Amino acid sequence: MQLPEWERLLWQGRPWRPDRWCAGERYLLTDFRLVRLWRDDAEEVALDDITDVRRTETRLDRILGTSTLAVHSRRRSPVVLVSVRRGQQLAALLELLAGDPRAPRNAEATRSALAWKPRSPAIDLRQALGSIIAVLIAIFGVVIGLHGTTAAVSYAPDDAIAPGGEKRSEADIIAFMEREVLPWARRTLGPIKGGADRITCDTCHGEGADRRSWQMPAVAALPQPEVRNRGWETYTSTMDAQMRNAIYGYIAESDNQSKAAYMREVVVPGMARLLHRPAYDFTRPYEFNRARRSIGCYHCHRVR
Question: Which fold has domain 9-114?
């Protein structure tokens, strides 16, 4: 397939299955579209039309290190990439390109995204059961928190923002952010934003943050979970970041996890270390995390 001069190739791959390989099947990702080719036929989807990317694995896939991606769009049946390497990274990249029109669409940024090495979760029935129980405990704890007496929040003596509960001056906080947080953010977010030079204070705090006293959350909104429509924020005005982390974080759709994995595994723990606070522990209830001022996704991200 000959690409037009204005279109740039970002990635290409082939399925790790003999029948698909013999049929000449291959996949192309450009700065404009995703294409599946085989024999004398082809199907494609524009990046801006992608609505969802679903990744599945068979036992053979886990042995080979491959997975299958079903890329859904607004206008047609899904384009399916069978038995591809680095499927989790590719799924995250596709979701990023589809969901953020400012995301860089060049070969360097693509290589950086595909070079990410996500942590592989162990499959353990007891752990899965424990997670289900943790969800129930978390939601139950949040309900109590909405209407009952909550535990006091403890402030570590070395907390970067409010040591011992005494908030530092704005000048001291800004100096800390410029000295410690911004260099870390450039190293950590640079690979998924097209380079360290693209990371500024506005990346996390938004435009005009100084006029809002650097108030958080300020980052672009995350996808709206179904539970939000059922009244969690409609019937209360006291929902804080810890409640949002407990409710939305626990029930995030599995199809969105590939995009969130880097943030949960790298960004959230890293930011927690800088602030001398724990990262949000999804195995513990809401009250546990709130009392320790744990750092989670919704401390930075809004809900829409």
Answer: PH-domain like (2.30.29)
Would you give the DSSP letter of residue 197?
G
**Burial of 119: CB neighbours in 10 Å, binned 0-12, 13-18, 19+:** exposed
The tokens for 170 are 């704005």
The first and second tokens of residue 45, run together, are 């989807």
Per the model's pLDDT, the better-predicted residue between 169 and 257 turns out to be: 169
Note the pTM of the prediction, 2 decimals. Answer: 0.48
CA 134 to CA 282: how far, in whole Å?
7
Q: Where in the chain is the domain with CATH 2.30.29?
A: 9-114
In single-letter form, the type of residue at position 184 comes to W
In contact, 54 and 120? CB cutoff 8 Å: no
Euclidean distance between CA atoms 304 and 124, whole angstroms: 33
Residue carrying the six token digits 């994995």:
261
